[in-house]
Amino acid sequence: MEQRFRWKREYEGLASQFLKQHFGGPQGVVNCFPCTRGDYPWGEHRPSVVDSRVPAKNNTEYHGLERHAMQYHATNQYEYAYHHWILAAFWRLEDMKTNGFDDARHDAALEYCLKHAHYNEALHLWQQSQRTRRVPTPEEFELNPVALEAKTDTALDQLSRANSSGKKAK
Prior knowledge:
This protein is mainly α. The protein has helices at residues 10-23, 26-32, 54-74, 78-99, 104-128, 145-169. It is globular.
């Protein structure tokens, strides 16, 4: 893993700040993503903490944070995208520690979040500079521009579907 995409201790403070700012705390993240809410329709069995399915269930949070981050990115809200990528990385890291995941696949997923975080932070700084700087490119952050565009399209589609279903409900 390249040094600039490794988790740094300073990110913990940022993650804590962003967690409070966007969700009020950890419970806000848990409540935001349906699979982990107390009122989720589990049926007859709700997994307990020692249930072997809990790690699979926990990924709802960081996948949700990543989905929100991409939606912010797709709508040019780069500062919030940066915040959510840091949160997703932090949530992944904590899940890795809790469950003893120390393999290359999990490290790569953490690195992926940090690449996106740094890219969106650079885009945010570019926005703030009255765009007098050169626009950052995905390649500078080891991101595949074709894959990024596909994920951006998916995020816009998700937002469009959510908007359409909201209009129908009114």
